[in-house]
Amino acid sequence: MTQLLWNGLFVGSFYALVALGYTMVYGIIRLLNFAHGDLYMLGAFVGFGVLSVAGGLATGLGFVALLIVLIIAMLVTGTAGLLLERIAYRPLRGAPRLSVLITAVGASFAIEYGMRLVAGPNPEVYPVRLAGDSVNVLGARITIQQASLILIAVLLMAGLQWLVMGTGTGRAMRAISQDPTAALYMGINVDAVIARTFFIGSALAGAAGVMAGGYYGKIDFLMGFIIGLKAFTAAVIGGIGNIKGAMLGGLALGLLESIGTAWIGGQWRDVFAFSFLIIFLTLRPTGILGERVTERV
Amino acid sequence: MTTNFATSPTRASALFDRLQQNRYLGLIGLAVAALAPFITATNYALSVMTSALLFVMLAVGLNIVVGYCGLLDLGYAAFFAIGAYVSGVLATRYGWPLLATVPVVIVAAVVAGIVIGGPTLRLRSDYLAIVTLGFGEIIRITANNLTITGGPSGIYGIPGITLLGIDLSGPVGLYYTCVVVVALAVLGAARLGRSRLGRAWRFIREDEDAAEAMGINTYRVKLAAYIGGAIWGGLAGILFGAQLSAISPPSFTFLWSALILMAVVLGGMGSTPGVVLGAIFISVLPELLREAADYRYFVFGILLIVVMIFRRQGLWPARAVERQSRRDLREAEKHDAGKAKEVVP
Amino acid sequence: MTAYLTRRLSRVALVGGAAVAAMMLSACGNGLASGGGEQSSDKGPIVLGMLTPLSGSSSAIGPYMKNGAQLAVDEINGKGGVDGRKLELKVEDEACDAKSATAGANKLVTAGVKISVGGYCSGATLPTLPIFEKADVPMLIPAANSNELVKQHKKNVFLINGTGAQQSDAAFTFMKKVGATKVALMDDNTSYSKDIADTTAKLLTGSPALAGRESVTAGESDYSANVTAILKGQPDFIYWTGYYQEGGLIIRQLRQAGYTGKVMVADGSVDQKLVDIAGSEAAEGVFATMTQTPETIQGADKWIADYKSKFGAAPGPYSTQAYDAVRVAAEAVKQAGSTDGSAVIKALEGIDGFQLFSGPLKFTPDHTLSSGGFQILTVEKGKIVLKDTLQ
Q: Residue A114 belongs to what domain range?
């Protein structure tokens, strides 16, 4: 049982990291950034590229090398998110939501198959792998690497929480999410804040991508699709637009899947997870932490 | 085929009265569809054209939900799958003729529409997107796991359609069956869109709160749109089974739902000629890009972004005034002019 | 105003009508009115058609199959072709999707293909069966091997790959041989994979016994929940029947979870990438059921060298089967003395002892290989090598 919980929490922390980007972007401009999962994939491939170029230098350093790569990949995916917003989403601000969503679906296709053109359809294998000793905690096997990855995820999330709640940028973000027009009148540079939001959200997805690459080892151009879907679900379970909610939602979904697999078999897991989502939303439409918001008229 | 006629009427559409325009457009479209096999009737051309017709039917069905009523449905392939599987199972395991499965499919689609729409249509619109997406996955995975649906291999050996002893299972017969069914489906959806119910849908799309304030039971009206879309999707599923003779879960992935949605949005939400055009475009384009298989989805993605940025109302947008007949318009003008006169002096 | 509109309208209709008429004239010969039908030529090259995934999730396989077939075509043409006629290969994308596959099959039929030598995804291949059947085109399916293809007993369908049932037999034989007692099966819930798992499960009634089954979702990274579930049955032998992408991850995660028993994978997982993804440590000693490959056949080095020099890449899964499919097709046409569908089918049924990579060819009444030719490979020092021919 503890093993199940641990598996769930570990997977859930990946979901949470990706869900954060979804929820931040949604919270601020009410956009479901469908291409978000693909930024996760992009992060994994940037990390792969850097590690391949750095070659032998990195293999000896292991975890430290991965940390450096992590930062580079975050910068690159953050910039990619910035460009995505500038090119694809900003011209459509104020357009009907559905049009923006279609653009996002288009961006998702373009990133996935653009990467396929660059890297080919075959999966790639990370040159540096995290594998190591495991310790037994209350009957669950936990590797040092898993623990460190969770630690990184928690640190990133804590940093984000501080950024949003404790800094001027964060206050501006919250203001825009409340009322973009009023925020503009109050002297907030709305474009810049939205751009920053995209940068941060995308960088977090990129970080998750590198961590997944380093831990699991296999990356391919479609790897972002499923996790994007799951992160989206996690964000909704947590109450979309709410940062703590995204973290909780991610962990909840991870646990749900882990326990669902054990109870009713792997082939029914997604049915279980999605049915739970539907029932949950019917009973509590705002998610775990979502506030009761009326749709803006 | 119809794309050849797209450019001239687009420009002309600004001049034409809506009703008149629709009547001739529909006839022209039907004529093109009916005559196309006389130009080329290779199996390949027929199969591509039949697929395009099915896609038109799906897009028109989704247009009821997304275009008319403004409900974002990301799992439309689920209804398509329900139609294909219900008719396929009845036809192959119980030996029903395909036509006899139609009422059962309609009932199944309605039930599915109520089951999924019932609890979720009260939700915020963004949540509806994820719930419908989840529903699409649930249906596909369930079909993949059950024995009666043939598991991952699916169902094969679905018979063709026979009507009054006439065998319509050949490529030509099937094509013309599809022409008739899809023409009726397009006409039916367009009629629905102009009906009293259709006006309520558009009202909800534009402003749900105002619609509610005006005494529309928004929940019931939305459910009606959802069920309408479900029936169209289910019926398209029957034709799909008849065309391919074999169906399996990979045919009903999220990618399909996304493609149908793209057809609707690309063509112009709520606009029947636009959606028909969009569906033909989306369905035929991959065939034209067959040689460049590696690039097609990439080009596809870029294309979507470009279209949305530069022509977001779609290739052939719905017009805001379409519900009014010309006489109404003229009278309204007179009325306005009269009013203005009264005020000015 | 109304008169103007009517005038405009009739002009549009006129232009439209003229366009239709022009198209009818210019494209005469293919339309319904002209009698339609496929032109059958008994001169010129013999066209072979191949459906294979070139896009979509399985697009990595397409080039392997295409190149393998092309190699055979070039070799045969280099020796003067068949009865003085050259072979020509037409390849269409099936994208592992029923709609693309049917459109592709129709395109091939329309292009005058005489024999089909393609078919990878079983779910996409099934709907193409009636299309080729109606066009009287024999099919030599090099990869797709679901039992559903066999169960239909179509006259024109022949399987060059070993079937799921044959692979299960080989797997079961080997499990007994190494003294496994509790066997767990893992599949990826696709037609191919579940087929093998199902037929293997039916064999595991006595000893070794079935110690649990688990289906995973392809395309994910974390299978620890599935691994935890499968290890609950405390198996000492785990058989993975899916593809290498997930197989590599599962092997690695099994080892990380402390599993020390034996692992075996099915032919879809036999790829050097399996070892790379799992890591050579975790992959060491993993077994695989596989038909004969150039790597395991004595004297096939030249074949590999030819392939490499021609396409600049190493052969992969199903390269050999596609190569063999073309050779069998050529042989059947030669024996039949024509490309007529039923004559070729008859010739195919009569072939006896034609040498394939998987051994001498003789089709069973079911149109499958009489022996699947499956053998056991193993990972040794990071390379996949032959372990046991099961003879």
A: 12-224
